[in-house]
Amino acid sequence: LDVSMDTWSYFHACLVSIWLHRFYVYSAVAFGISLWIVVQIATTRTKRKKSHGNPASSEGTADKLGNGCAPPQAQEVHVAGVKIFYGSQTGTAKRFARALAEAVTSLNLPVEVINMGDYDPEDGLSEETHSRNICVFLVATYTEGQPPESAAWFCKWLEEAANDFRVGKSFLQGLRYAVFGLGNSAYVDHYNTVGRRMDRWLWMLSASRIMTRAEGDCNVAQSKHGSIEADFEAWKAKFLTRLQALCRGEKKPCTGKCKKEKCKSSGKQSKESSDHEYGTSEHENTEAEELFETSSEEEAGGTDSVVDVEDLGDIMGHMKKAKVLLLEGVWNGQVLVTEQAKLNCLMNFALFSGYKLIGSHSGVKLCRWTKSMLRGRGGCYKHTFYGIESHRCMEATPSLACANKCVFCWRHHTNPVGTEWRWKMDQPEVILQEAIENHQNMIKQFKGVSGVKAARLEEALMVKHCALSLVGEPIMYPQINRFVRLLHQHGISTFLVTNAQFPEEIRRLEPVTQLYVSVDASTKESLRRIDRPLFKDFWQRFLDSLKALAEKQQRTVYRLTLVKAWNVDELKAYADLISLGKPDFIEVKGVTYCGESSASSLTMANVPWHGEVVSFVQELARLLPDYGIACEHEHSNCVLMAHSKVRLLG
Predict the structure, then answer these.
(1) Residues whose CB falls within 8 Å of the CB of residue 427, separated by 6 or more in sequence, listed in order
(2) Distance CA 600, CA 249 (A)
(3) Would you place residue 197 in the very low, low, confident or very high pLDDT band (cuts 50, 70, 90)?
(4) Cβ 83 vs Cβ 114: under 8 Å
(5) DSSP for residue 255
(6) Cβ atoms within 10 Å, residue 638
(7) Using an 8 Å Cβ cutoff, are 637 and 589 in contact?
């Protein structure tokens, strides 16, 4: 018992002593922890310096594969694989693609070699934006600067996507690529044009170069390395080095001149891709680099050049000045004494890629729904609503001119405008013949394209329907009746759309398969703001056009385009206008945003959701007892209403 009491007394005394001196205990513990932290920081810095000075001794190096790529168990994979696309006429690009594939395989990376002719870029390339693959394009330039036959569709699709404002400019953002072009400098005017254009189109869609474009030359006398094979081998070595750097997670090539743990590469980075995540590779200050690698900056002086951001202001200034001179009747220092001359300049100045002009005032273009149905996919709303086969539909107009300047015009007002016909008139027989020929030529380009159905391609060559709604006001064409008769004689049905500013022309118009009137607003003020008509008596013309439509003994349609915050609250006024024209059908469609333009203040906020369009139609149907909802096409953001007499007749 005495021993127990002594032990307890001892511990009690110790505890009391610690408590009385607790401040010193706390200080000692804090000092020890601080000292440990300082030692750890100093040790870490020492290890980093050693690792930076001698990469071979870095602890992390032992965990890397021999090719510089992170091991499979690493949390982040910087490069999932490499896809090599080739477009070849004589087999050289194909041979290079296989050689590059063997070299990539030696780095323990998955690799796939793809013939551009067997690939659908519309679906495939978009998937590469998040696949972490590196896409390599080896493409030759063939006769007259054209791509090889196997790469023709791939290049055409890429060009149209890059120049079509309806395709988002960030469509390929995230795709990483490199381009090696094959050409012959003996053909100076067309040397490596396909590779250069492909590089530009990819960049325009926000894809990111991993290194500058390279060019191989079949002309031994001018080849930078003595032959096209040597050019390719030199580029391949640089590509593999760049690929290894990407595998390690390096976003820019390192020149070895690093300061304070930050890599500072020498050379100039391409201005075009400086905003992209991976950017372009930078030129090394070596003769070999300058001999066979070029950037788009060097193309700035050519007709196919890419404009740098710094030069964009000057370019736009020249364009604005040119347009002002054109409107004043002056072009290239010459006075344009005729409206025909002005029209010719406007068409050359403004029309987008892929638009086929006919004569002096007509045009034809291939619709994207035509391309879709050629692949066995869905058609446009006309197919859903009326059974029109999109792949057999020709979109055309006999008049590019229009009397309105609508805020949602997908031409951004680049087509001519006017209130009367002032131009030299082409004969309807010529317009029809050239329209069909141009349409068929565009269809034939799909032969051999991946996914295109042979049976539908054959059917598409026989046009069965013509949508006279491409652009402009077709009813302005003085020979519109003869043109429509010719279409019907060829077994081609017709849907004609007019902007409701020519009531007398509507009355004189002979029956078409289906006659549309655009009803873009229901009040005078909203029509003025949305359609911006040129006629001073536009509202009376608008009402007279609707009355003229009611007098037509044929199938008629109102087309309502809903612009959010502009015309979606005018239900009662719309109902009154519908009672005035008594159409058989009413198509209600959400406005399509066509990109930014100085000619329009519309934004994506003005585009209604499909659910909002459906709600509008449901409310409108309550005000129109003779009409009901017949069908909808969600992809086109469109709903169809039909009169009871049409529904009863089936």
Answers:
(1) 479
(2) 44
(3) very high
(4) yes
(5) -
(6) 24
(7) yes
As a dihedral over the C-alpha atoms of residue 448, residue 449, residue 455, residue 459, rounded to 10 degrees, the angle is -100
pLDDT in the model for residue 78: 86
Structure tokens belonging to residue 285: 């200050």
Start-to-end CA distance of the chain, whole Å, equals 111
Identify the DSSP state of 73. Answer: T
Question: What is the distance between the alpha carbons of residues 422 and 569, in angstroms, rounded to a whole number?
Answer: 38
Q: CA-to-CA distance for 410 and 165, rounded, in angstroms?
A: 9
Whole-number Å distance between alpha carbons of 514 and 382: 11
pLDDT above 70: residue 522: yes
Least Cα distance to 176 among 114, 111, 251, 240 occurs for: 251
- For residue 519, the SS3 value is strand
How do residues 396-435 score in pLDDT, each as one tens digit? 989 887 877 777 665 544 556 777 887 788 999 999 999 9
Which amino acid, 535? Answer: F
Phi, psi of 358 (to 5 degrees): -125, 120
Domain boundaries 81-248, CATH class: alpha beta
Tokens 């539908």 locate to: 456
Q: What is the pTM of this model?
A: 0.58
Alpha carbon distances (Å) from 457 to 148, 277, 391, 451? 21, 41, 8, 11
Tokens 């608008």 belong to 542
Which amino acid is located at 173 in the chain? Q
pLDDT greater than 60 at residue 350: no
Q: How many residues are given for the chain?
A: 650
- Please, are residues 393 and 468 in contact by the beta-carbon 8 Å criterion? no
Q: What is the CATH T-level fold of the domain 342-643, as seen in this structure?
A: TIM Barrel (3.20.20)
Q: Which amino acid is at 633?
A: H
Q: Look at residue 273 and tell me whether its pLDDT is greater than 80.
A: no
Q: Which of 20-34, 54-68, 416-430, 493-507 has the highest mean pLDDT?
A: 493-507
- Cα 519 to Cα 517: distance, rounded to the nearest angstrom: 6
3-class SS at 147? coil
Note the pLDDT of residue 440: 93
Q: Which two tokens stand for residue 624?
A: 């129109």
Spatial distance between the Cα atoms of 634 and 270, rounded to a whole number of angstroms: 42
Predicted pLDDT of residue 552 = 93
The vertex-421 CA angle with 420 and 422, nearest 5°, equals 110
Q: What residue segments make up the domains of the chain, in order of their start? A: 81-248, 342-643
Q: What average pLDDT score do residues 555-562 get?
A: 92
3-state secondary structure of 495: strand
Is residue 334 very low, low, confident or very high in pLDDT (cuts 50, 70, 90)? very low
How far apart (Å, rounded) are the C-alpha atoms in residues 58 and 78? 20
**Which residue in the block uniquely carries the two structure tokens 């004569």?**
359
Q: How far apart (Å, rounded) are the C-alpha atoms in residues 209 and 42?
A: 40
Beta-strand ranges (E) seen in 151-301 are: 176-183, 208-209, 213-217, 258-259, 262-263, 293-294
Average pLDDT, the chain: 78
Closest by CA to 125, choosing from 80, 180, 174, is 174
The β-bridge partners of 279 are none
Listed in sequence order, the residues at least 6 apart from 625 whose beta carbon sits closer than 8 Å to its beta carbon are none
Q: Which helix (H) or strand (E) holds 640?
A: strand 638-643
Q: How confident is the model over 523-540, as a mean pLDDT? A: 87
pLDDT at 564 over 90: no
- For residue 182, what pLDDT is reported? 93
Distance between CA 397 and CA 475 in Å, rounded?
9
